[in-house]
Amino acid sequence: MWLISKIKQVLLVAKPGVVTLSYPFAPHPVPKDYRGQPYWDHHKCIGCGGCAAHCPARTIMIRDVCQELRVMMYDGSRCTYCGRCADVCPEDAITMTPLYEMATGDKNDLSETMELFMATCHRCGRCYDHETGNSIDKMRNIGYRYDSIEMRAVIPKTTEQLDLNVLKETENFKRPEKK
């Protein structure tokens, strides 16, 4: 009796055929609106910092080198691909790509650094991109940020005017040692 039930089980299982994907040899297409690795279009980016301010994983860091130059760094090793950066970007400079196979042995392969030239307003002294207009006022992001890009650490310090002492403190920033 048990032999007949086992034969029925084997026939039932063998009927549909192969149902698994041959994944490494034929990749499965991603679904529509899949949020993979973000992509920055540096021609559209105005450097407003809205993406860095709204990133829950704090993967986007900003360093103001001088009044005219802003460095933005994306650390993809910490990114959760939530898409908040693309949602808040006023110029649609960030789009979510369907890339998800990004295994690497080097952390620097997942990071991206942009240097943006910023023009300054003669009236208030704040930076803006001279090609697209003053969208920084829309984001209400004023002043300088001092994140430590070298140590990949977000330092919550901003000042209205560039302070060289704060800049030196953040350049010498060291993460706490583990006990």
Describe the overall structure.
- By secondary structure, this protein is an alpha+beta fold.
- It has one domain: Alpha-Beta Plaits (2-Layer Sandwich).
- It is built from five helices and nine strands, in the order αβαββαββββαββα.
- The chain has a three-stranded antiparallel sheet with strand order 2-3-5. A two-stranded antiparallel ribbon has the order 1-4. A two-stranded antiparallel ribbon has the order 6-7.
- A hairpin with a 4-residue loop joins β2 and β3.
- The longest helix is centred in the first third of the chain and has 13 residues.
- The chain is elongated.
- It starts with a helix and ends in an 8-residue tail after the last helix.
- About 7% of the residues have low confidence.
